What we know:
Layout: H1 2-11, E1 17-18, H2 20-33, H3 37-44, H4 51-76, H5 82-103, H6 109-116, H7 120-126, H8 129-138, H9 140-148, E2 150-151, H10 156-180, H11 182-191, H12 202-212, H13 214-217, E3 219-224, E4 231-232, E5 244-250, H14 269-272, E6 277-279, E7 283-284, H15 290-297, H16 303-307, E8 311-313, H17 316-322, E9 326-331, E10 344-347, H18 371-376, H19 380-383, E11 387-392, H20 426-452, E12 458-464, E13 469-470, E14 476-477, E15 491-492, E16 494-498, H21 500-506, H22 510-519, E17 522-523, H23 527-534, E18 537-538
Parallel strand pairs: 1-2, 3-8, 5-11, 5-12, 7-17, 9-10, 9-11
Antiparallel strand pairs: 4-18, 6-16, 7-15, 12-16, 13-14
Helix pairs in contact: 2-4, 2-5, 4-10, 5-8, 5-9, 6-12
Amino acid sequence: MFALFSRSLRSAPAAPTRHPHLLIAATSVWLASLCNLPLWQAVAALPAVQGLRGWGFGLAFFVLIAAGNAAVLGLLAWGRLLKPVLALALLTAASGVYFMASYGIVIDTTMLVNVLQTDPREAGDLLNWRMAAALLLLAAPPLLWLMRQRLRPLGWWRQLWQRALFITAAVLVGLASLLLVFQDFAATMRNHTQLRYLINPLNSLYAVFDLATKPLQMDTRTLAPLGRDAQLGTSYQSQATAPLLLLVVGETARAANFGLDGYARATTPQLQARSDIANAPNAWACGTSTAASLPCMFSHLGRSAYGQRKSNAEGLLDVLQHAGLAVLWVDNQSGCKGVCDRVTEISTSALHDPQWCPGGECQDPIMLRDLQAHIDALPAEQRARGTVVVLHQMGSHGPAYAKRSLPAQKKFLPECQTNALQQCTREEVVNAYDNSILATDAFLNASIEWLGQRSGASALLYVSDHGESLGENNLYLHGLPYAIAPDTQKHVPWLAWLSPAMQERTRTATGCLQQDWRTREISHDDYFHSVLGLLDVHTSAYDGTRDVFAPCRQP
């Protein structure tokens, strides 16, 4: 019987071979349909895309995307690379569907940079069973089908001319479908620019291409010098004690949920209880992600010029070092994005401390532990002039907001305990986020108290790198392109505390700042110049019109 079964297996007809173009075409259709659900949902919600004409537009748009997928995959998937390339496209698209549908994000070059700079701790906060289910439903069926297909062998010349015809046909089909609805398509893309970032996985492929060609768009190898002429002002000539400035870089704090900025909830009770805080309720970030905002705010260029720069340049911390000050970066995050590459850096995110690092997740106050020892380890000659310390918070980094506060700080309950925010009510998501702002409030107050114990001139300047979406219009997290991002991702808290000695040294009264900043629009564009002005550092890179302390500085 076993021999009979073996003979039947040998005599069974072999599975038919498939032309490579059939695999590319089938994959392209799958990608254009199920792997573009967020796009089709957004298109269906447009008022102008309704009725029979709307169905025609949707069909033509579908054909255009499928043809575009086929042309791009036809260029990339050759020979033995055919199945791996198609499999990678399917997995990328399935992942994109999950994140776009779950958090309302879009995929562009900035989002790709965020992904590449994500550390394992942050990546773990994004993984859950829903993502696995999305991959299983959207990628597993075509992957199983793809693995079972036997490819028809083709000679290199035959493969070359047939592939050229295939790509040409795909381009012509795409152009034809576009011309049929060009008027509606042009108007839709012009009025709803976010749609272009939802075309999956062409959005990811474009982002990879754009990032890969950055060296052709700008000189990434050269670091232009900046502020080499920096000198310390007259306030340093007869100082009894060296000044100390804490620059606290917040993470994902949005002004809309900051009690000091008018939020209905008391999320900043300790800061609000102080009368010596100067708060700027109208402050704006230069990016919607850490990767975009952090290098921009420490640059002298400002948002517009920074995005158009032809090469990288030294930043604020370099200029402070050129002036002769001691500079230290303390990081409780995933790194400084190149901002602190040339200064002393300390990381606290992986420390073991039963009080501040329960479960291996270090809270921001861990940065104050041993801070004086870290400062004392800096060069004595520079410390004698003055010290600048940057504290880079974990802050309100999502989606695991519940991890950003200690049990004693969880005032707003119930809170979302999972990183799959769609499993929670919006109230639970906001509660968890607001508790993280409470933790930031406590950390900032503790930092001010730490400074207050020192003699001499000291100050603290706090500003968040970007804001956050918490479910408004079904948007979560951050990172949307600046032009289409909601204000909640761009409007950030900004505040300063100056000790009495610092106010005297800089001839800048907190009361004046409180009045001036109340109505002044401030942005990250002002950060570089304001820090230099506060520290009395003179350099040709300084622009006094962008120094937010200047209007209150007495002659």
